[in-house]
Amino acid sequence: MILEAAIGDAYGAGFEFRDLDFIILNNDLTQYHKHGLYTEIYKRYTDDTQMAIAISELLLEDDNWNEIKVADKFVEVFHRDKRRGYSDRVYNALDASKNGADFIKIIDNGSNGNGSAMRAYSIGYLKDVDQLMEFCEIQAKTSHHTIEGISCAKRIALAVHYFKYNLGDGTTLIPFLNETLKENETYKITSPIDMHGYPTTQSVIKIVSEATSMSDCLKTSIDYGGDTDTVAALCMAILSHKQNCDKVLPVFLYEGLENDKFGKDFLIDLDLKLDAKFK
């Protein structure tokens, strides 16, 4: 799951907020493309996956969460492997922090952005839905202490949970989310896909509920434009657990992905550890 999300993140980063004409011309699943602003993340995952790694490591290490523990992990993972892609708000707060307490003190946590959702998917491994909801809320509050930030993190984790534990084939995903979250949302795709929590998660849930191929979904999710790396990463993470879905992706996506200390092999190992803990 983390590997597939990182692939979606790294591939999608080359198209993030680019003109639709550029996307139409280049989004053919044949090669990675350089980010319009940060050439150093070419073939590399961004903050989306790095923060998801932090959440995943905390899931493996600790069954009792609080905001300080989550923030500590964010700071730890950032400083061992600094990379671009973060908003200035989050990057500057992490860069200035030595620990989680610093981060919580520095960060403006009133955001309605999709950051709390982009990193929440591994929380879906939790079998207990009440614990899942609690952990989503705890991690969201560190940087997105808003109704939108919390709700959207829960949507993504619950989508993973739904497919991982075979609660349906996708056709009942939206009713499941509405019932569990006590919402009455109509999920739709608005192109280009905005980086706020609601339009991002509405689009992602709609896309994965109907998808039958990870490869087709990767291309389609980027064709909509906007926050393509986050949308692609979330779609790939969720679909990695969908039973009635072709999971074959082009080989270049695996071969070209970074494989340094925290690259491809590290992500594979993290996935194996998650699978072993949450059988």
What descriptors fit this protein?
279 residues, mainly alpha, ADP-ribosylglycohydrolase fold, 15 helices, globular
Protein described:
- The mean pLDDT is about 95.
- About 50% of the residues are buried.
- The protein has helices at about 1-15, 20-25, 45-60, 65-80, 90-95, 100-105, 115-120, 130-140, 145-165, 175-180, 195-210, 215-225, 230-240, 250-255, 265-275.
- The protein is built from 15 helices and no strands.
- It has one domain: ADP-ribosylglycohydrolase fold, CATH 1.10.4080.
- The longest helix has 18 residues, at about 145-165.
- By secondary structure, it is mainly α.
In short:
With 279 residues, the protein is an all-alpha fold.
State the helical fraction: 55-70%
Give the CATH level 1 class.
Mainly Alpha
Q: Assign the CATH topology.
A: ADP-ribosylglycohydrolase fold
Distance between the termini: 14 Å
Shape: globular
With helices defined by DSSP (H or I, 4 residues minimum), what is the helix count? 15
Strand content: under 5%
- Total count of domains: 1
Give the second-level CATH assignment, the architecture.
Orthogonal Bundle
Please outline the helices and strands.
Elements: H1 2-13, H2 20-26, H3 47-61, H4 67-80, H5 88-95, H6 100-106, H7 115-118, H8 129-141, H9 147-164, H10 173-181, H11 197-210, H12 214-223, H13 228-239, H14 251-255, H15 264-277
